[in-house]
């Protein structure tokens, strides 16, 4: 969040965000009760923060292993040249197992987070979907063994 956007937020906005970071399903009326304001005030503040792009939406957090997705990994991707980036991003975005893409500094051009059902599916994904994209030179894959921390930043 830029300092300009932060300057447009007051203590009530930050309190609302703090409540929603802890549980995004908290009803507006409950937030209003906690903050000692009306429900309408919460609606107005939420709309303001959405319009500013501070709140981009809400997500459900899935327990992926319970749905049969047992492999989480990160794929460092080497892109052959700068002019290939947009095409590579577009093609990677079409792959359902790719859940995050990051343009990075360092060794990799792109770093992606990938979720698969098992190692066989990961192998198929790498060999037949990712590494066949024109513009990708090669990849390095890192399998996540566990995720001991998963949280939003605290404001």
From TrEMBL:
Keyword line: DNA-binding, Transcription, Transcription regulation
Superkingdom to which the source organism belongs: Bacteria
Start and end residues of each HTH asnC-type domain: 9-70
InterPro entries for the chain: AsnC-type_HTH_dom (IPR000485), Dimeric_a/b-barrel (IPR011008), HTH-Siroheme_Decarb (IPR050684), Tscrpt_reg_AsnC-like (IPR019888), Tscrpt_reg_AsnC/Lrp_C (IPR019887), WH-like_DNA-bd_sf (IPR036388), WH_DNA-bd_sf (IPR036390)
SUPFAM superfamilies: Dimeric alpha+beta barrel (SSF54909), Winged helix' DNA-binding domain (SSF46785)
Entry GO MF terms: sequence-specific DNA binding
Protein name: Lrp/AsnC ligand binding domain-containing protein
Organism: Clostridium paridis
């Amino acid at each position: 969040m830029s300092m300009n956007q932060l300057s447009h937020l007051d203590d009530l906005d930050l309190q609302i965000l703090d409540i929603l970071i802890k549980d995004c399903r908290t009803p507006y009326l409950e937030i209003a009760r906690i903050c000692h304001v009306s429900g309408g005030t919460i609606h107005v503040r939420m709309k303001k923060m959405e319009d500013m792009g501070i709140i981009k939406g809400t997500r459900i957090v899935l327990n992926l292993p319970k749905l049969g997705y047992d492999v989480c990994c990160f794929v460092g991707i080497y892109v052959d040249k700068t002019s290939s980036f947009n095409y590579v991003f577009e093609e990677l975005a079409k792959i359902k197992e790719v859940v995050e893409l990051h343009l990075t500094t360092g060794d990799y051009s792109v770093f992606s987070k990938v979720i698969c059902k098992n190692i066989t599916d990961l192998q198929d994904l790498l060999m037949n979907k990712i590494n066949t994209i024109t513009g990708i030179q090669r990849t390095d894959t890192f399998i996540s063994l566990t995720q001991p921390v998963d949280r939003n930043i605290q404001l």
